[in-house]
């Protein structure tokens, strides 16, 4: 069974903004744009029955859509940086969704995730990058941010045994629902307003 994890996809506009951060750091292996994502919970290698149970439970999650913004960049590994990431705005709905997925995984017998949830998009993995180069790279890009985007679903992804960074395969899609009171434009044709200029 391939390694599984739950994640949020990055929409095209935000992914294109992230792609502009590529380059300018010796020793960096940049993640392909189509593989950008925000990991919610790493599940790992599980047998087919456990995978089916996970899908069944995740399918019952009933949470509203929400908005996110990507902002700021940083690195993991303070003395010896091993990856570059873009930060994610702290949305309570994101933490609530991640917490529910974590509880489902633990109820199904998976060990708790040992790492504290730090939402981010991995941009590059670092092999032999010098600390000075990393500091210089981050110093010129600290004001990075995207426009807000809507999160309307989360996905179950699989990855083949590799060094990390893709390619990933979407195994299942789990929609989030429209927030209560959200107006619906279904069936109405939206015409651009006429300009008086």
Brief descriptors of the model:
single chain; Phosphoesterase_HXTX; 22% helix; RNA 2',3'-cyclic phosphodiesterase; four-stranded antiparallel β-sheet; disordered C terminus; alpha+beta; Cyclic_Pdiesterase; 197 residues; 4 helices
Please outline what is shown here.
A motif (HXTX 1) lies at residues 37-40. Residues 8-85, 90-166 form the Phosphoesterase HXTX domain. With 197 residues, the chain is of the alpha+beta class.
Report on this structure.
- By secondary structure, the chain is α+β, with helices and mostly antiparallel strands.
- Helices cover 22% and strands 30% of the residues.
- The protein contains 4 helices and 10 strands; from the N terminus they run E-H-E-E-H-E-E-E-H-E-H-E-E-E.
- It has helices at residues 12-19, 48-58, 92-107, 131-139, and strands spanning 3-9, 28-30, 37-45, 66-68, 70-76, 83-88, 120-126, 149-151, 153-159, 168-175.
- The strands form 3 sheets. The chain has a 4-stranded antiparallel beta sheet, with helices on one face. A 4-stranded antiparallel beta sheet has the order 2-7-6-5, with helices on one face. A two-stranded antiparallel sheet has the order 4-8.
- Hydrolyzes RNA 2',3'-cyclic phosphodiester to an RNA 2'-phosphomonoester.
- It comes from Rhizobium wuzhouense.
- A motif (HXTX 1) lies at residues 37-40.
